[in-house]
């Protein structure tokens, strides 16, 4: 079942923070975050495994609450290069295939 | 991260012709490859999963006779759109997964197919 992402779209000014949420109605093994720019393929950002964890690199971090079946992606002090569509992908316990959410479009204004 | 290439990046064809798209993992062996289709401003819709040396597993609603998938080696998978029609026009993206226990998928740059 497709995970639900919120918000659908965000417009920020450079330097502002953003949070993108991803929730599933099913149990999860892991959550995967990708960013896609227009006309390009998705680029892998990070994977979070069950057991509940947080990860981050640079000013982009994420958390995964296994019990709530939710993950959040945090973008701190956003840069123009952060613009794009962010997809979360959820992998169920049987680890057969990742199902992607509908995406969150992020637009950073100078 | 691992690199996946796709060829061609863009193709325009006439209705009724067949188009082959290649997906290669350049610096890792992809035991599993996935094929997605993406319409403008929409999500990635999984079409099929292919494991090297075995038949692909198609998602519900995807015609296996129309979208032929071959995963002949650990570094190459092909998608052939047979008798393409305008409604098949889309952005086709493949991804490769390095191996069991490694769930991360690395995506190719995509192929934009336009059927006239």
Provide a short characterization of the protein structure:
The complex is a heterodimer of chains A (110) and B (116). Chain A is mainly β and 110 residues long.
Beta-strand percent range of chain A: over 45%
Principal-axes geometry of chain A comes out as: globular
Rg of Cα set of chain A? 13 Å
Work out the strand percent of chain B: over 45%
Number of helices of chain B: 0
Distance between the termini of chain B: 36 Å
Overall SS class of chain B: mainly beta
- Most extensive chain interface and residues per partner: A-B, 25 and 18 residues
Count the beta strands of chain B: 11
Q: How many strand elements of chain A?
A: 11
Q: Give, in order, the helices and strands of chain A.
A: EEEEEEEEEEE
Q: Helix count of chain A? A: 0
Q: Characterize the largest beta sheet of chain A: strand count, sense, and whether it forms a barrel.
A: 6 strands, mixed
Order of helices and strands of chain B: EEEEEEEEEEE
In round numbers, the mean pLDDT of chain B is 91
Low-confidence runs of at least 5 consecutive residues of chain A: none
What keywords describe this structure?
heterodimer, A: 110 residues, mainly beta, six-stranded mixed beta sheet, five-stranded antiparallel beta sheet, 11 strands, globular, B: 116 residues, seven-stranded mixed beta sheet, four-stranded antiparallel beta sheet, 0% helix
Outline the secondary-structure elements.
The complex is a heterodimer of chains A (about 110) and B (about 120).
Chain A: E1 4-6, E2 9-13, E3 18-23, E4 30-36, E5 43-49, E6 53-57, E7 60-65, E8 70-75, E9 84-91, E10 99-100, E11 104-109
Parallel strand pairs in A: 2-11
Antiparallel strand pairs in A: 1-3, 3-8, 4-5, 4-9, 6-7, 7-8, 9-10, 9-11
Chain B: E1 4-7, E2 10-13, E3 19-25, E4 32-38, E5 45-51, E6 57-58, E7 67-73, E8 76-81, E9 90-99, E10 102-107, E11 111-115
Parallel strand pairs in B: 2-11
Antiparallel strand pairs in B: 1-3, 3-8, 4-5, 4-9, 5-6, 7-8, 9-10, 9-11
């Amino acid at each position: 079942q497709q995970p639900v992402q919120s918000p659908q779209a965000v417009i920020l000014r450079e330097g502002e923070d953003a949070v993108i949420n991803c929730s599933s109605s099913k149990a999860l093994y892991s959550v995967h975050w990708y960013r896609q720019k227009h006309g390009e393929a998705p680029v892998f950002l990070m994977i979070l495994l069950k057991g509940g964890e947080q990860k981050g690199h640079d000013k982009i971090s994420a958390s995964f609450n296994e019990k709530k079946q939710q993950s959040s992606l945090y973008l701190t002090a956003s840069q123009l290069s952060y613009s794009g569509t962010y997809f979360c992908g959820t992998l169920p316990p049987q680890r057969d295939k990742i199902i992607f959410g509908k995406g969150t479009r992020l637009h950073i204004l100078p | 991260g691992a690199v996946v290439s796709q060829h061609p990046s863009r193709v325009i064809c006439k209705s009724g012709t067949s188009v082959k798209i290649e997906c290669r993992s350049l610096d890792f062996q992809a035991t599993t490859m996935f094929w997605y289709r993406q319409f403008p401003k929409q999500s990635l819709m999984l079409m099929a999963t292919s494991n090297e040396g075995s038949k692909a597993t198609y998602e519900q609603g995807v015609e296996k006779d129309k979208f032929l998938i071959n995963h002949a080696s650990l570094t190459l998978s092909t998608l052939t759109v047979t008798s393409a029609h305008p409604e098949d026009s889309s952005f086709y993206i493949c991804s490769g997964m390095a191996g069991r226990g490694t769930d991360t998928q690395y995506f190719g740059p995509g192929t934009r197919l336009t059927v006239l």
